[in-house]
Amino acid sequence: MTLCGMFFLLACTTSPAPVERGDSSAPLDLPAHSECFELGHVMDEETCLAVVEDDGRYPTVSENKSGLEPDWDDPRIDDPELEWLRSQIQRCTCSCCHTRPWGGPGVYFYDLTWEPVWIDSASSWSLRVLKGDTHDDTQTLPTTDRARLDAIIDSELDRRRNAD
Asked: Least enclosed by CB within 10 Å: which of 13, 135, 153, 161?
């Protein structure tokens, strides 16, 4: 059973329950690192802010890691495949730390709010991690369509290689 499957058996909600703040020694009921909602649902801001606070790392800075100049006329700005990939990430807890406005400590690796094209903030290594080309399954993006994710990332990695 995937982490996503375990999460739905335990929670079965479209939005995590609000996090109780009160006693700081009480454990927070937060989703784990790679847990995801079903397609069509996203992690809400309140939960993500609590996840980032609980993580305890300092915010980082995002930057262009594509090796290419950012272009506000880039046709990828409205690319439905990149939007699909972003939606896959946004339904998972990892989106909390990879969203700059929420103080995410992971925006150094990629930032879902980077402009003009968010995927340019991801290094080639980060893209390979999302794809699962590492030895750490906890860093792989759980997805509803592995072949589609692989094709999008392979296309981006090819674009970067061919620009050299």
From this structure: 135
